[in-house]
TrEMBL record:
Superkingdom of the organism of origin: Bacteria
Signal sequence, start to end: 1-22
InterPro entries linked to this entry: DUF3157
Matches recorded under Pfam families: DUF3157
Protein species of origin: Hydrogenimonas cancrithermarum
Presence of keyword Signal: yes
Name this polypeptide is given: DUF4340 domain-containing protein
Keyword field: Signal
């Protein structure tokens, strides 16, 4: 695990240096073979209803409101297409989207604040690994070392 972390840490500057912004504002990634590829920019407040699956819509609707762990160290507040994530008293508010939904278990990735994406690689924001209970009463945050159960408080 330490080796993987060190490899990732040392390779990030190499990846970051391969991005460029053209005069017209287009973001591109420069490839080693001399070619380039346009990178999709996602505006912070944009919600593209055509790309939201019906299941994702259902999950987003169920998530609306405030969720908190028993000790209050981890909390989420979903309002429309924005989420405020609080951990140990530090908060961050970003637009979000639901990805990689497992329909049978309602496990999904909450991707918040992403600014640039190319394939599996994204820049900015944060990703949380969550699981919504079938009755929508609890939310399991699987991103922590020990998964944390949150309950809807509002």
């Amino acid at each position: 695990m330490k080796r993987l972390f060190l490899l990732l840490l040392t390779s990030l500057p190499l990846l970051a240096s391969q991005y460029a912004t053209l005069k017209d504002g287009t973001k591109i990634i420069l490839k080693d073979d001399g070619t380039w590829e346009k990178v999709e920019i996602i505006p912070e407040n944009a919600v593209d209803a055509t790309k939201v699956s019906p299941l994702a819509e259902k999950i987003i609707k169920a998530l609306q409101g405030k969720w908190s762990s028993k000790d209050g160290k981890i909390a989420y507040c979903f309002q429309g297409n924005r989420v405020t994530f609080t951990k140990d008293g530090k908060s961050k508010t970003e637009s979000f989207k639901i990805e990689n939904i497992e329909p049978d278990t309602l496990r999904f990735h909450l991707n918040a604040g992403e600014t640039t994406k190319m394939g599996f690689f994204s820049v900015g924001g944060f990703t949380r690994y969550l699981k919504l209970s079938k009755d929508h009463a609890t939310l399991l945050d699987r991103s922590e070392t020990f998964p944390v159960t949150l309950h809807k408080v509002q």
